[in-house]
Amino acid sequence: MPELRDITVLIVDDDPVVTAALHAQVNRVLGFRVVGIAHTGHAALAAAGRFAPRLVLLDLHLPDMPGLEVAHRLRRPDQPPTDVIVISGRKESATVRAAMQRGALYYLVKPTRAGILEQTLLRYAATAEQLESGGRFAEQQEIDRIFRSLHLDQAARPKSISAATEQAVLDALAGVEEDASAHELAGMIGVSRATARRYLEHLAERGLVEGRPRYGPTGRPQNRYRVR
Hints:
- The strands form two sheets. Strands 2-1-3-4-5 form a five-stranded parallel sheet, sandwiched between helices. It has a two-stranded antiparallel ribbon with strand order 6-7.
- The radius of gyration is 19 Å and the shape is elongated.
- Helix content is 45%, strand content 19%.
- It has nine helices and seven strands; from the N terminus they run E-H-E-H-E-H-E-H-E-H-H-H-H-H-E-E.
- The mean pLDDT is 85.
- By secondary structure, the protein is an alpha/beta fold.
- Keywords: Activator, Cytoplasm, DNA-binding, Phosphoprotein, Transcription, Transcription regulation, Two-component regulatory system.
- Residues 8-125 form the Response regulatory domain.
- This is Transcriptional regulatory protein.
- Pfam families: HTH_IclR, Response_reg.
C-alpha cells in the first residue's frame, strides 16, 4: 500500500489503562500516529499547543476540568487547529448535544471496540483527504456524501451490505502491501468475486476505498482497490 501521511493524534483520558488501549488501537490503523497522551485537561491543552495534533480523542470526565471545557478551549484562536472526537461513557442527549456545539466531529460511547474505532478513523481520514483536495464541490450530493461518511450514516448502507462483511473487506485491504483486485479480495475473505466487487464499489462510493484501473499485457484494465 502506498505510504500515507500520518494523521497525528492526541489521546486525552484520566485512566491509564484506557489511554494505553487507545494508543495501541490507533497506532494499528494505517496513516495514524499517536503523538501524545494526557490525563488531565490542563495537560491536554499543553500537549495540543506543543504537538499540534490533527485529531484529539477526548474523554469528558477529567480530574481538573470538564472535557467539554477542553473541547471549547481547543477551538480558541491561540490554539493550533485540531479536530475532536469524543470517547465517553456518558450517554445523555444533553451531553452529546453540548459536545456537538463545542465542535466534536463524532461521539463514541465507551467501551469502544477496536473495529469501531478503526472504522471511525478511516472514515475521518477519507473525509479529511477530500476536504484538503483544494477543489470545489460541483454538486450538493458530493457534500452530502462527505457528511454521511464522516458521521457514519448507517442509513446509507443498503440492505445487501452487511456491517460485518464491510469490516472484513476493510481489514483485508488494510493488510495488503499495495492494492488488490475483487478476485484477490474474494479469496482473502471467502466470498464470491461478485460479492467482493459489490462491497468494494459500495466502499468506494463512501470514500473509504479507492479504485484505480491497472492495464495488463492484453490492454484490458483491471480495477485495483486500496484503503484511502
